[in-house]
Amino acid sequence: WLGINIFLFTYYFLFFDRDERYFYTRAILGSALAWARASAKCLNFNSMLILLPVCRNLLSFLRGTCSCCRRTLRKQLDHNLTFHKLVAYALALLTAVHTIAHLFNLERYNHSQQATDRSLPAILSKMHLQGSDKWLNPIHSNQTTVEYVAFTTIPGLTGVIITLALILMVTSSTEFIRRNYFEVFWYTHHLFLIYFIGLVIHGVAGLVRGQTEESMEEVHPHRCARYLTQKDEDCSHDCCKDPEFGSIPAESWKWVLAPVLLYIFERILRVCRAWQKVVVTKVVMHPARVLELQMQKKGFRMEVGQYIFVNCPAISLLEWHPFTLTSAPEQDFFSIHIRAAGDWTERLIDTFQQQNLEMPRIEVDGPFGTASEDVFQYEVAMLVGAGIGVTPFASILKSIWYKFQQADQTLKTKKIYFYWLCRDTGAFAWFNDLLASLEQKMAESGKADFLTYRLFLTGWNASIANNVALHFDTATDTVTGLRHKTIFGRPMWNSEFAAVAAAHPRSVVGVFLCGPGGLAKSLQKSCHQHSSLDPRKVKFYFNKENF
């Protein structure tokens, strides 16, 4: 992607800097023409790409069709939002280059129009007086200012509008805004409609012009340019005729037509699925203000680790929020766990707590694929969840329980290590029953070693510590009631990875994370450090959930 951008920019910069059709245009504008046009081509290319990473149905389809492909190829699909952000930053940078270059262009157009000498730029700027279709300089009056052109012409006005839309979208996409003011991010991101409409219209008026092919044949600039400044009234040679100019054809629509149509189809598909009736079969309120919704929907099929988008019209008709499915594919319902983390989730939890006879209507779009779908493709898997980030692994653990229940012999995975990091003890209550049931079922199946789990409490007070010290010798943990004792503090990842590598010296280990970026960097670093260069020995592959 970066290489293509560099190639496009370099190619079109040299093209517009040397193409003879723009000889007279360069006489007025200089190198700013090449800067503006090269950045415009790259803007078109990146505008073509920006929508593709957010076509969730397309990505899920590709993930399904790539199930037999190499693991690295499927993993690239999990970086869709990272790629989307990179393309957005490129658009912002290229827009700045394009805007600055055109500000120079307008200033030079204005300067050439006001010039009174017999220089080539001055003569070219007065050619509009000889015919309405012969102009090269879009500024036809000495009273016209750069600001006037920027806010009254189609290219100028649409350029201002799409630049403002892009600035709002980029600034509202920062981590702080998305985490704390998701509604601001959600609504401003829909300015992409204005961006694409403005982009298609932007080049229609064609303020930047070049010499036509017919005129080039009659009065080639290399042969006739010098005569423009020395022309006599009784001129009779071949170069007496004035050059004629035409607009550069608008091309943006050619670049963005296919992805825009694909995205429209994507949105139509989402709307159709959202209209399908969803029945909320059970509502459970867990500690730490976590709401569990169990739902049913006709034709709904899921895989482990997938996620859905949820809308509650009683709260907002337009807001859709992503939630990981916590149910297993083997269950006859699908469920999500919603933690209070913002205005929308707070209002949703309050709505379900206060509901009387009628259950609030819920709309669901999905499910969509994630990295966790590949967990059963590995012989050994390390699952790391932080807080509510445990939800995709709840689905995986539930599915394992059903596979043991049904004595599934096709299960490729031989060992799972599960790490759950929580700040408060109340969070462990969400899936205590699931872990306890798994412990019992694996013991009954003679596979007690299949699952090793470690629960880490990263925040505690003196009373919790004293209680643990008093009951240190009990068979079960005083915090969770499980057989494995809760560990106070954070994991020593180097030690954990070293132990897994020693226990499985010739295995491919999948490391799956649903948690913050800082933890992702630590795990990714550990994966690189503990993977052997020998392909016959242990190899760690890092996978992270992205929404």
TrEMBL record:
Recorded GO MF terms: metal ion binding; superoxide-generating NAD(P)H oxidase activity
Record's catalysed reaction(s): NADPH + 2 O2 = 2 superoxide + NADP(+) + H(+)
Task: Kindly list the GO CC terms recorded for this protein.
Answer: NADPH oxidase complex
Localization, UniProt: Cell membrane
Name the domain of life. Answer: Eukaryota
Record-linked PROSITE patterns: FAD_FR (PS51384)
Main subcellular location of this protein, as a coarse class: membrane
Q: What are the GO BP annotations of this UniProt entry?
A: defense response; superoxide anion generation
Q: How does it sit in the membrane?
A: Multi-pass membrane protein
Q: Which organism is it from?
A: Cariama cristata
What InterPro entries is this protein classified in? Cyt_b245_heavy_chain, FAD-bd_8, FAD-bd_FR_type, Fe3_Rdtase_TM_dom, Fe_red_NAD-bd_6, FNR_nucleotide-bd, RBOH/FRE, Riboflavin_synthase-like_b-brl
Q: What is this protein called?
A: NADPH oxidase 1
Per its UniProt record, what CDD domains does this chain match?
NOX_Duox_like_FAD_NADP
Per the UniProt record, the lineage of the source organism begins with: Eukaryota, Metazoa, Chordata, Craniata, Vertebrata
Q: Which residues cross the membrane?
A: 86-104, 148-172, 184-208
Q: Where is the signal peptide?
A: none
Keyword Endoplasmic reticulum on entry: no
Q: Which UniProt keywords are listed?
A: Cell membrane, Glycoprotein, Heme, Iron, Membrane, Metal-binding, Oxidoreductase, Transmembrane, Transmembrane helix
Q: Name one Pfam family in it.
A: NAD_binding_6
Ranges for domain FAD-binding FR-type: 273-374
Cell membrane listed as a keyword: yes
